[in-house]
Design a protein that fits this description.
Elements (H helix, E strand, L loop, with lengths): L19 H15 L16 E6 L5 H12 L3 E6 L11 H9 L5 E6 L4 H8 L4 E7 L5 H15 L6 E5 L6 H12 L3 E5 L14 E4 L2 H5 L4 E4 L15 H8 L3 H4 L7 E3 L12 H4 L6 H19 L4
Parallel strand pairs: 1-2, 1-3, 3-4, 5-6, 5-8, 6-7, 8-9
Helix pairs in contact: 1-5, 1-11, 2-11, 3-4, 5-6, 5-11
Bound molecules: phosphoric acid mono(formamide)ester.
Length: 311
C-alpha cells in the first residue's frame, strides 16, 4: 500500500529531525527505486535538469560515489569538489565557498566535513539549495543510518523488537550516532560496547544501552555491527594496540556464538580486516556488508527525490 505521508523536509542533517513516518517513507521510496539499479538501462528521467554538487572535504569511497551514481541514475547533473580542489586551500571559508557554489544555482549540495556541525552551518547560510549531511565529524551520517535501516528491514522485516549490537569506537562514530537514533525510533533496541575510552555514557541519552563487555551487547542479538577504529580522529592513543583491540572487541566466531544463529553481520566500511572483524566473518554467509553498499544507492536516490520535492 502506498504511503499517504508527505515528506516536508528540504535538508537532511540528522536522523533526529525525521519522524517515524518520514523514516518509513524514505525506506519505502528507496525500495521502489532499488529495481532501477538492476535494469540493463539504469536511468530514469525523474531529476532531469537538476544540479547536484558533491562537496567532500574528507576521503570517501562509498558515500561520494553512491550519491553520484544515485543522481546520475535519476538524470541529474552532478559535480564533485574535493578539499584539495576547492579554494578553501587558498583561505576561503567554508561558508564563502558554499555561497559561491549557490550563486551557480545548484539544487542540492551534499557535504562531508571533518567538523561536527559543518552541514548545519551550511544549511543556515544557503537560500535555495537543499543540503545533505554526508558525514560531519563525529556527529552524524544520516544517509548511512538510513541504508542500515533498509538493509536490516530487507532481511528481517519489521525493525520493532529487534536487538542491534554495535561494537567499536562509538565515541568517534557518526554512523553509530545515526544508527542509534534511527533504530531506536523504529522500535529496535541498541546495545553498544567498546573500550571504555571509546564509549561515552552520553550515548545512553540517544537511547542505547552501554555494555562494558561486548559479550553482553552481542548476546541474543539479531544484528551485530562492527565499527572501524578511526585513527584519523584520535589525538591520543585510546587503546594500547590494535592487536589488543582485536583480541577483546574484534567480531569473531567465538563472540558470535552468543548472538542469534541468523544474526546479520554489518559494517559501514571501510573495513580493517583482522582488527574490528575477522575476514571469515566479514565474508561469511551472514554478512550483509555489500548489501549495505547496494542499498546506499537506493537510499540516496530516495533522498535526492524526496528532498528536492518529489511526490
Ligand atoms: N560508510 C562510509 O561512509 O564510507 P565512505 O567513507 O567510503 O564514504
Amino acid at each position: 500500500m502506498e504511503s499517504e505521508h508527505l515528506f516536508k523536509h528540504k535538508h537532511l542533517i540528522s536522523l533526529a529531525d525525521l519522524s517515524v513516518a518520514d523514516l518509513d517513507l524514505v525506506l519505502q521510496t528507496a525500495m521502489s527505486f532499488k529495481e532501477i539499479s538492476a535494469r540493463s538501462i539504469k536511468k530514469v528521467p525523474t531529476l532531469r535538469g537538476r544540479t547536484v554538487i558533491n562537496l567532500f572535504f574528507e576521503p570517501s569511497t562509498r558515500t561520494r560515489l553512491s550519491f553520484e551514481i544515485a543522481a546520475k541514475r535519476m538524470s541529474a547533473d552532478t559535480f564533485n569538489i574535493s578539499a584539495s580542489s576547492s579554494s578553501t586551500t587558498k583561505g576561503e571559508t567554508l561558508v564563502d565557498t558554499v555561497l559561491n557554489l549557490e550563486a551557480m544555482n545548484p539544487d542540492m549540495i551534499i557535504i562531508r566535513h571533518s567538523s561536527s556541525g559543518a552541514a548545519n552551518l551550511i544549511k543556515r547560510h544557503v537560500k535555495n539549495a537543499s543540503v545533505i549531511n554526508a558525514g560531519d565529524g563525529t556527529h552524524e551520517h544520516p544517509s548511512q543510518g538510513l541504508l542500515d535501516l533498509m538493509t536490516v528491514r530487507e532481511h528481517k522485516g519489521d525493525l520493532a523488537g529487534l536487538k542491534i549490537a554495535i561494537i567499536g569506537d562509538i565515541a568517534h562514530s557518526r554512523v553509530a550516532h545515526s544508527d542509534i537514533i534511527g533504530f531506536t525510533k523504529m522500535g529496535a533496541s541498541v546495545a553498544v560496547s567498546g573500550p571504555a575510552t571509546m564509549v561515552p555514557t552520553e550515548v545512553e541519552q540517544l537511547g542505547a544501552r552501554v555494555c562494558l563487555r561486548p559479550q553482553d551487547a552481542v548476546t541474543d542479538a539479531d544484528v551485530v555491527m562492527a565499527l572501524r577504529i578511526q585513527r584519523e580522529r584520535l589525538m591520543d592513543p585510546l587503546i594500547p594496540s590494535l592487536r589488543e583491540y582485536a583480541t577483546f572487541f574484534g567480531i569473531n566466531k567465538k563472540l558470535l556464538k552468543l548472538a542469534k544463529p541468523d544474526a546479520l553481520i554489518m559494517h559501514p566500511g571501510p573495513i580493517n580486516r583482522g582488527v574490528e572483524i575477522d575476514p571469515d566473518i566479514a565474508d561469511g554467509p551472514n554478512s550483509v556488508i555489500l548489501d549495505q553498499v547496494t542499498n546506499g544507492v537506493a537510499i540516496r536516490m530516495a533522498l535526492l527525490y524526496l528532498l528536492m520535492g518529489g511526490e
